[in-house]
Write the structure tokens for this entry.
Amino acid sequence: MLRYRQMTFFAFFVSMLLFLSSCTAPASPGEPSATQEAAPVVTWYYYDQDNTDPEANERIGNFYLAETIPQFNEEFAGRYRWVNVPRDYNLVLDLVAAVQTNGDIPDVMRTGAVDLPTFLLNNTVQDLTDYVKGAAWYADLDPKAVEACTAPDGKIYCVPVSESPYLVYFWTEMYPDGFPTTTDAFLAKAAELKAADKYALTYWGSTAFDGEGAGRYFYQVISSFGGSYDDGQGNMRLNTPENIAAVEFMREIVANGYSPEAAFVGNFEEEASFKDGLAGAFPTGFYVGYQYLNPLKSPSGQEFNTISAQDMEDAVNAGVMGLVPIFAPEGGTPGCHMDVFGFVIPNGAKNVEGAKAYIDWIMQKDRAVQWVLRAGGGVPVASSVREDAAFQTEIFKQAAAALGASDCKPWYGSLNRIPEAKKIITETMFDLLKGNPNADIAAALAAAEAEYNSSN
Amino acid sequence: MNQTQKPLRISVGRWLPFWVLLPAMLIIAAIQLYPTIYTILLSLQQIEPGTGRFVFVGVRNFERLLGSVAFVRSLVHTVVFLLGYVVLTLSASFAIALLLRQRLRFTPLYITLLFVPWVISDVVAGAVWRLFVVPDYGLFSPFFANPTLFGEPNGISILTTVPPNQFSPRIPLPPAPALLFLVVASAWKILPFTTLLILGALQTVAQEVQESARIDGASNLQLLRHIILPLIRPMLAVTLFYLILGGINGVGMVFSLTGGGPGTSTEVLSYLLYSIGFSKLDFGLAGALSVFIAMLNFGLIALTLRLSAAYEEH
């Protein structure tokens, strides 16, 4: 009987072992055996090198990784091996959570400077000051981009590779005399277009994606009126004469029907009327417009249909699409938000030296060109890279001119609780423009800033 | 020999159920008990700015939660949604089940068609319903834009209209059209399941009992009220639990149909939880809201059970 009991226990434990072993993740086919010497350099992108779908949303980045991972591995054979872990768009949260729980932390991650305050608040990323300042490519970088990667403590926490200003894409067929440079001229033209059953512009007016709209059209208009979201000391400051004037102007656009109802829907519905040539202009990021606004159909019916960034290039080259700064009140300077894209090295990264080798590899001129065009977006922050022929095309020239004519700054200024700030701002703006268009602007802006500042 | 064998047999027999259940208990402990305890602990902590460390703050997260406009607003949205969802689904399911019980000519076909919404994922269903009402090209947009039916000057746009005269930011009543539309879409999605539950229950009501009632002169309404409803009450209670739990915790349709908008008009508690935890990265506050939602679930279910028991006693 004792033997029977032992057999029972033995059978039970064997079953448990089998069960537990079936729960472990199978080894990825790309993973090498432990005997290989090359140390992995783990990256996080929201691109997937194994996704070969030519119509995938992130196809450009997917193909970039599929092509460059083998190149890196060949160049660093025996030393480093690039292992990319594809993530969804929530990779900022994932990184914060991974560092806090000491989970699977990448060695290097593609990110935007807009995420830096969140990382600093949660102690997620490493100080890279000495590394960046000691790098051969440092002197070549746009100081504004380096500033965007610099925390209030003066330390550099990210490596900037590209920057993407927010500007206006417009159909030249609807604005044959050029896009208006002043707010008054814009309103006059908008009335003309409205009479012709066209929308003067469309924009991100919704609260979708937890307030992503804060840095887009709202900030472009507010900053063009000389306003901002903060007081430079980490407090939200919305109730200012400049901001109130900007809101009044935006209200006029909505009240007169110069923009489509879909501007307030979210889920990128606002793009449709511009891509179909029904709305004449679309204020957005250079990167966003270049990468995602396709296919295109001009107001006269001309189609650009490769479903890639090529469509926008073709439309610009054909002269039916133009890129300009947003309008400003008479005598004002157009404002805009500046996205800066690059890399962070998280706290807890296992292969910091490999991460730095990876960044140095990307910062080489030819590599940087490819990264900016296919994985980063925008225009290069290194002047030598910006001189490359790839960035001398018409679309890049127009983007550079728009950038030069605008006063571009990160929308969040000195605010450090970015997710909270952007949600409060977009909810307030939506309410003032759409939800409650007769509400007192000053009171609503004061209430919003009080809500944010109560946690300071 | 017999003296040594007997206690062993008893021992194996006594402990065998424990050993058999142990793997399942371990798995449940790992995937349910641990996260529950962790969430409760999280609700009592907050991230220290700059260091990223969790520090104990007592009930401060609960104070922040109860004092926030977003929480009260979302609670009101949840109550409106839940009421509409439960009432609409239960009444529609009951009506359809009664019709299907009549053994009409194409009943199997109707049942098959009825199943369609249930096999579609929340995200797909939400996206389809969204397409119905997207301004400019949605199938039903022109209907809702009719000023005669829905008010001057341009009717309503489901995805963008917010009632202008709401009670206050904390009490967003009357609800936005988007919230009512969400109720209809969510009810449509769950309708097949609840209809089948009720249909199954209806089919267990003995024909003889109903015939006896009719011989005694009971009208249709009396038959329904005094015979059918009491007999299928246990299944109605199960359906009600299911709807309450799904209504409070479901977030898929909100994501794909309205994204919480327009503005914050459809931001229900489960959506707020996602937003606080996964967008604002305020894990402590999200933990507090999770605990609140769990308590709300328990409370509503306990109330339903109590009412059901009281009704039975009566």
